[in-house]
Amino acid sequence: MWPVLWPAVQVAQATTVNAKAAVETAQANAENAQGKYREIKVALADARRILDRNKEMVRKSLIAQNDLDTAQATYDGAVAQLKASEAQLEAAAGQLKSASAQRRLAEAQEMAAAAQVDQAKAALQAADLDLEHTTIRAPVNGIVVSRSVDVGQTVAAEFAGPCPLSHRPGSHADAGRYERQRSGYWSCTGGAKRSPSLWMPIKISPSPAR
Length: 210
Description:
Layout: H1 2-59, H2 65-133, E1 142-147, E2 165-169, H3 172-176, E3 180-182, E4 185-186
Antiparallel strand pairs: 1-2, 3-4
């Protein structure tokens, strides 16, 4: 199941990479906008100083009116540029905020996709373990002499009847290797990971006479 989820994880990872790149671009744009805004403020201050000086010089008839008009136009242009720069700076800040939010969302989606893969892996492992528990194994080699259930039947863990398979040991030595778990009970599953809920009575036929 979990391999099916890998494309979603890969898409989420790619989205995160793109979102991070968008944040870097927005950050660069915001820094450029901030730099231009500072430059225009400096230019505006210079234009204001020149305008004030020319006004005083025109009042003293030291320069022509045209010089004052030029200074006034330069100042007005700097004011307009500053307003435009403020708008660009605000837009760049908004883009950076939006890109940062998109990056956080992409990172969260990537984490969620990875978590789904982990959950699918855990579910697969649990299913494999359940499948392994559907196989009944005798603890020693021998011959099956009777069967109480058929393939396809469901046997609950609380099954109180005889073990589905009755076992005849191949030799007295094999029979001696049986592990007694409870009084009158034998293991039907064998192995180191046997569940106590699966111990059930088992019919054991005697070894053939030699």
